[in-house]
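Q: What would this chain look like folded?
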Amino acid sequence: MNNKLEKSIETIEKDMQQKNFFLECEKHWVFWALIMIGGIYGAYTYTLRGGVFCNAQTANVVLLSMALGTRDWHQALYLCVPISSYFLGTILSEILAKRIKKYQHFLRWDTILIGIDIFIVLALGFLPKSAPDQICQVTLNFLCAMQFNTFRQNEGMPMATTFVTNHIRQTGSFFVKAIRDKDKKAAHRSKMHGAMILFFLLGGIYSSVLCSFFGLHAIWGAIPILFFMFIKLAYADLTYEKDLLYKVPRGH
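A: My prediction, written as structure tokens:
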């Protein structure tokens, strides 16, 4: 075990010298897992909690504009809640990331956020059917905003972890550059964005299947993925990246 750890540290030091080093929270697998979680949340709220998507707010802003245009004030106020929750989630994650950094001697904010997700998702699965759907919607809006703002770059590539609109654009754009210019870097980026779309799709399929079998408890399907992430990130924080807790992930 010690030999493996020593080799990991040596590898990190070499990568840092070559400027190819990425923290564990910036690795491909983290972003694939996160966007799969985004797919799970979106399919869950749309299927069982009010027919809305909690991952992003574009649709809610469109619906808000329609409600204002038709003078449906009640609907407009209703839609302000998830939009505001997303906004506040972004603000809180930005504040906590800086505040916690002063005291983090064991775990990064990124790791702590995944731990928080686990407990909140566990609690949401216990909500009875009679509970207002808005409780689940707003809570997941908040979590998605924090996730989106915390995890920003996938090994140096800016990437969203809660929705795929930009990934579809980037996949197509880099695909053309790869073919037209025979650009290997563009081909790699196209594949990476395409992988994000695939994992989001898998998350939605997984969630839909769970919803059909387990109903409102289907949200717990996200916990094994989140738990696996937490263990791996915590291990990195406590061992081979212990002396790198000061290092800020790219994009921040």
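The domain at 27-241 is CATH 1.20.1250 (Growth Hormone; Chain: A;).
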